[in-house]
Amino acid sequence: MGSIAGAVGSQILSAVISVVLDTSYIDTGRHQRPVAGLGQVRALSLLIPSLNHAYRQLDLEKVRLSAHLPGHEMEHDLLVLGGPKNKEVARRLLTAMEESLPFRLGGGVITWEAPAYQGEAADGVVTRDCGYAVRAPHLGPVAGLR
Predict the structure, then answer these.
(1) Tens digit of pLDDT for each residue in 48-78?
(2) What's the CA dihedral at 103, 117, 20, 72 to 10 degrees?
(3) Which of 28, 22, 142 is nearest to 87 (CA)?
(4) Among 28-37, 57-66, 92-101, which stretch is predicted with the lowest mean pLDDT?
(5) How far, in Å, CA of 17 to CA of 98, rounded?
(6) Are 21 and 41 in contact (CB under 8 A)?
(7) Confidence (pLDDT) at 96
């Protein structure tokens, strides 16, 4: 993750960024409460120093759950944390970019050229995880995200 954070921090990006944590819901018995996963929060905590470097005026008030992402924020740089398996915003963005991505996703595996990367768990605890970072130009409107 350190090399990804360094790559993000090495370039000055646009002045506005929206950090999007994809949304899951917990039933409180009275209502559905939107929440973000611990993995996304951990990833964000590792990226904050690089984001502060790249976005001199990083506003952590701009951290949004995807269920509460105003359409106008889709016009700015986005950092979407979470993958397509359970995350709607990530799924839609990756589907729109599928042909241009250098890797393929499926069955819990990330395939990049020949190697396949997959997380591991023991006794219900993740012991090894993997992920990817995609940096892409603005795609224009993506179906269902406005």
Answers:
(1) 888 778 777 677 776 777 766 666 666 667 7
(2) 10
(3) 22
(4) 57-66
(5) 23
(6) yes
(7) 84
Strand order of the sheet with strand 17-21?
A: 63-65, 17-21, 77-81
Q: Token pair of 43, please?
A: 């990833």
Write the DSSP string, the chain.
Answer: -HHHHHHHHTS---S-EEEEEPPEEEE-SSSEEEE--HHHHHHHHHHHHHHHHHSTT--GGGEEEGGG--GGGGGSEEEEES-TTT-HHHHHHHHHHGGG-SEEEETTEEEESS-EEE-EEETTEEEE-----------S--TT--
87's tokens: 């995350």
Mean pLDDT rounded to a whole number for the chain: 75
Q: Is the pLDDT of residue 97 over 80?
A: yes
- Whole-number pLDDT of residue 145: 55
What lies within 8 Å, CB to CB, of 112 at 6+ separation is 102, 103, 132
Terminal alpha carbon distance of the chain: 30
